[in-house]
Amino acid sequence: MPIRIPGELPALGVLSEENIFVMDTDRAINQDIRPMEVGILNLMPNKIETEVQILRLLSNTPLQINIDLIRIGEQSHRNTPESHMNNFYRHFDDIVDKKYDGLIVTGAPLALLAYEDVKYWDKMQEVMTWAKRNVQSTMFLCWAAHAAIYHFYGINRKLRDSKLCGVFPHDVNFQHDELMRGFDPVFYAPQSRYGEIGLDDYRSIAGLNVLASSETTGAHIVASEDKRLVFITGHPEYDADTLDQEYQRDVKAGLNPSLPENYYPNNDPSQPPVVNWRSHGTLLYTNWLNYYVYQTTPYDLSELS
Fold it and tell me: What is the mean pLDDT of the chain?
């Protein structure tokens, strides 16, 4: 079964061209099954690019999934047409009474700001508290992962002296956890962040397990034992050229960035990047949907608490 998204959403055409099975709303209503309800709180500036990346990873599942794209605040989005936001996004206040099988909260380009200085921090806290009661399993990505650890457990990130950027090998620490099912013992994933929370800090939190980590990057995949909270510090959803776009942007801005590690052949930015993370990124999302969402969520979402 496919993901179910509005027929006019730009991601539909992109994914269809990639031979990814997606279903528009008109066709989906004729299927007599209970689809999964998944929300995506998209905090990234380029909403459309992030939508495509995440929907691509959600598509490789036998489950039918209804997607709600969610926004918080009324701020303008210079990298996304306001017409797109109005047509395809729902305000959080409009879905606050709805319950979801799964929720994905994306990262945000807020690395150097204290959480309390983020203009929508109060709303973010409201969303995270709401998710604990109204969502079976929530996946937090990159900045949102660190923000959630701070919100739920009071542990603040530290800022690195330089940006961690590149594609790095990670070790599977809990091979029998269902989220890691089918993973190779060592797998690659993109990282792009300044923030860092130490492995010892994660391991000091009762009920959390560091499922995958690296000597270089620290914790990469962390999950609660009840499967309700998942923290991903990297970007398994990234396209082949996303790190390249970030690097070129920083070069143009005069930030003198370091080359992304393990990314360009021979460290030559003129060569196409090596892509070695896509299969494990897809597997991660498929496992989350199946084992952390579908296998644990109540049939009647009103029973969720």
Answer: 89
SS3 for 182?
coil
Is residue 65 within 8 A of residue 85, CB to CB? The reply is: no
| Nearest-angstrom CA–CA distance, 102 and 123 | 19
pLDDT (mean) for 92-103: 96
Q: Any alpha helices (H) in 182-258, and if so which ranges?
A: 199-203, 242-252
Task: Tell me the C-alpha distance between 39 and 293, whole Å.
Answer: 12
Residue reference for tokens 């099988």: 101
**Polymer length in residues for the chain:** 305
Encoded tokens for 112: 């150097």
pLDDT confidence of 16, banded at 50, 70, 90? low
Distance from the first to the final alpha carbon of the chain: 27
- List domains and CATH numbers for the chain: 3-158+198-239+278-303 (3.40.50.880)
CA max distance for the chain: 55
SS3 137: strand
Question: What residues are labeled active site?
Answer: 142, 235, 237
Give, to the nearest 10 degrees, the angle between helix 47-58 and helix 278-287: 70
Phi and psi angles of residue 148, each rounded to the nearest 5 degrees, phi first: -70, -40
